[in-house]
Amino acid sequence: MKVEVKLFAFFRENRFKVKVFEFDQPVSVLQVINQLDINPDEVGVTMINNRHCRHETMLHENDSLGIFPLIGGG
Hints:
Blueprint: E1 2-7, E2 18-22, H1 29-35, E3 43-48, E4 51-52, E5 63-69
Parallel strand pairs: 1-5
Antiparallel strand pairs: 1-2, 3-4, 3-5
């Protein structure tokens, strides 16, 4: 199963901007986050195919997963 993963903001540091991963079995958004060694508490928004999703959402063949960090400001 191929899944495109897009990272945003500081998640790109020492990782990548866009990368295609192949998985032997179905995986959840949280499993991908953990595989990338990203702290789930630092994730603000996740999107599959440009639609909001939850960490427990399962990915499908050719999905595009976007992972955005929490953003603060004022």
